[in-house]
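Pair request: fold both.
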Amino acid sequence: MELNVASICEAIAARQPDADCVIFRDRVFSWAEIQNRTRRLAQVVHEAGIGPQRRSPRVPPEHLNNWESSQSHLALYMLNGNEYLESMLGCWKAGTVPFNVNYRYVAEELRYLLTDSSAEGIIVHERFTPVLQAVLPTLKKQPKLILQVADGSGFGLLPGAVDYESAIAQASPTLPSFLTEGWSGDDMYLCYTGGTTGMPKGAMWRQADFLVTALGVRSRTGHEFQSLDQVVSEATGRVRALPAPPLMHGAAHWNALSAWVAGGAVIIQSVVDHFDPEDVLRTIEQTAATSLLLVGDPMARPLVDQLGRDRDAGRLRDLSSLRHVLSGGAVLSPAIQNQLLEFLPEVQIFNVLGSTESGRQGVARRSSSNSVATRFTPADTSVVLSEDLSRLLSPGEDESGWLAQSGRVPLGYLGDQTKTEATFPTIEGTRFAIPGDRARLSADGTLELLGRDSACITTGGEKVFAEEVETAVKAHPAVFDAVVCGRPSERFGSEVVAIIQLRSGASASDEQIRAVAAEHIARYKLPRAILRRDLILRSPSGKADYRWAAEQARLG
């Protein structure tokens, strides 16, 4: 059976209308309330002329090129809040495809994204309207709808925009039957990814594929569900997920949607414009969150520091509800895992391996009862392909290769034939997603993740992956954060450079940092230059900005 998110959520709501669905600040939305609000939003989108307007045959994906979309697209230009999740679900109920906008974009980047996506509508937080207002006159295709979410920033309603809450309040929750009957596994999920090394790309999935590969929607036996009733029967509702990163980051809304399709609740912390560890911990206490999603050390380290301050101050927190700490988009270093378990010994830590282009590809699980997990248990559909893409590598081979995913993978990149064919090639009759990660299969079948090929530095003829050097450098207790890149070298072609941020009041010489790093990586991988900065620049989701790092390395 081909499933989609709208049908699953409606069915779960019918079974448990009064259960918690979204918790944000002082508001608790039940499943019935969220379904009502998202149906009303769908009506607003529909009445604006976005999405299907009448009963007509859907163009099946097999009749389109893999980089083409036959659906309407709507931009979500927002901070975290119930409105973000409502907008995703409401658009899907309207037969429209929502997509994420990085709210840090300047006007030129926003113009590119709205043009590349052919956006027909925009839902925007009030604080971002000055940038949007500057961009709108330059767009060849003007949006049919601008919904504005009030946030107290004082900019007022953008000319031509409609207040989000007012629009929902005035709309009917009863949708045309051809919309609800048209919900399909072929409905598209669109997520823009990249932007740190180039312009973002819109990865397109069929929802039926996205649900299985990205959200992990399978039966308890590991098999795909055969009916909607089966999905609902196994949606226990025990999960209360707190995705701490911005919801415009794929890992965050995947975590939220995974909780929803399991019948659970999504919790959103109060402070949404930056990562506030005190607010996150307070939210866990107040809402009895069972899982917390972070993005690597940049989020986990401030959290550990806050737990340390609490301990030193004799402050006792009730975090007993928390069962899982997950990291998506970046790996938690062994040192940080150890510190987390020192404060939260009952928690299980999961490093989740995957990407927007591949879905979930593996997991490394750690608890206080086992040693640090440094390798990933791969998904059944995850493989490692040789350098020349000619064969599958076998466990125990010394050769490293490309981490790849088979089975239910994305269609391609919106509007980009070249990148689609490069990232999603068909090899001997099997279509793969190859997002650019390098890996090696150990003899026991586990995956050793080497790093992103785009962040690989060739120095003295040897390949060095930035991520493994970053982990080694951050093993020094004085280093709060680090990002690694290459810069030109007459002797080596390129040399490894580490840009570091020291802990407040801490100090360490270059030699001391290299000595600790040398305990974890070969000497040829050690940074030849270590540059100190007051703050490491990262994306709102915590990902390294390698363009910024390269500029810092050039400046010295």
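--- second member of the pair ---
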Amino acid sequence: MLTQRQQRQAAREFAKKWEGVGYEKGDSARFWLSLLNEVFGVDKPADYMRFEDQVMLDHTSFIDGFIPSTHVLIEQKSIDKDLRKGIRQSDGSILSPFQQAKRYSIELPYDDRPRWIVLSNFKEFHIYDMNKPQAEPEVVYLKDLEEDYYRLNFLVDEREQSIKKALEVSIKAGELVGVLYDALLKQYQNPEDSKTLQDLNVLCVRLVFCFYAEDAGLFGKHNMFHDYLAKFKDSPSSFRTSLIQLFKILDQKEDERDPYLSDDILAFPYVNGGLFAKDDIIIPRVDEEIINIILDQASAGFDWSKISPTIFGGVFESTLNPETRRSGGMHYTSIENIHKLIDPLFMDELRAEFQEALEIKTLNIKQKKLRDLQDKIASLKFLDPAAGSGNFLTETYLTLRRLENEILKELYGNQIVMGQTHNPIKVSIRQFYGIEINDFAVSVARTALWIAESQMMKETEDIINMNLDFFPLTNYANIVEGNALRLNWEDIVPKNELNYIMGNPPFVGHQYRNKSQIDDMLSVFGSSGYKKLDYVCSWFKKSADYIEDKAIHVAFVSTNSIT
């Protein structure tokens, strides 16, 4: 997928190329295929969009263009045609292009009817949202496409394309981590020891963070992590020592470091956040295989900046958590299923408020409405009491930040922010709370949220044309290690501050509960009333008790056994 900066550049070039060009019969297909490919990054636009589909009226007619995946019908006219005026049809009737398109729409099978109708004469796009059939069209001008390209985002299913790509990249990243994990494990003296496995998990989390940080530009110079360690590739003992030293440096403020260390290690930023704070983890000897995996396969050979933190958290945990490795397969809630829960719970309402703000004509009132919405989003607090690797929290954070970025786009209009020194971002990972019993999953969840935060900060930078500092980490994800059924949730987040409880608690049928799980349920339900209930019901009961007399909304992924 193209970055926002790349899209603006592509949109500018597209508008320049098509200025003053536009014959309906000869140029339509080239125009739309070029737009989809160059501006919106569709790899095979000819497979993505159809032209000249037949539609039977009292005579055979043809739909100029149709995009099945996003249900967009396109009515194309030549450059000299006024899209608001009626045009005589072959049957003698006079219809506006919109009336013509609606007539086609009615004759289509119900499932194929368009959500969007777009009229174009090569220099204007008139966009009709058929969910608002009486509304005036939104008009986008070719000459303004560099600034307004995002108003045509509905042409492509960005979420589906992005998720598919991110899944591929994240699975590949998980495979790399698995290879590295196995190579390191062989070097430990006590590979089955619980302390060994904990240390190895921490080591892998740190390495992944470094891989991501250098590819995302967080360390500064490109390939900084790789180039620092590459100097020691011929000496495994020096490689190990240098890695240990680097981890120590990443947890030291610049003024607390040994000033006589080499310049290349002192150039690394202070990370903070606790990721590198533990200095007693055992790092085993490294051999040529491990050095090759770290330098050539994971660092130089893979772009970690493209991973999805939502997906990768689950893939990472499934790769490294001994429990999930033994059970096989990946254990995470898909992005699609997360949205089935969070969209009706709160996102649909927030997006509707955003759309209402966009329709306000008076600029100062519109901007106030947008700023109020940004403040509202930044005030919400979320709890996942079965956080796992943080899928729900991470995807919710990403979704809210994307909405915040849309707000910032409207407020700043892609203009250079002159003289601004404050960070305009208000949504923070501090708004997100989680409880997870597995210590490794807690580390993964925190790291996933940091990665998500850095990705969204980059998107904000593209919008406001301002460099923002990611390090040192100042935001902390409030993810607590512990048994959610035994902890007092109000100790984690006061109920008068919380807005939403959500997640995917573990499902264990009542006949498969172990002694510890039975004891958990006894602590939640008391002496009776739980014996035939599935283990997951404990989260429902705990939530119900917690939200009593409070306006807190709760939604969990569940099975039909308890509904």
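Observation on the second member. Residues 335-562 form one domain.
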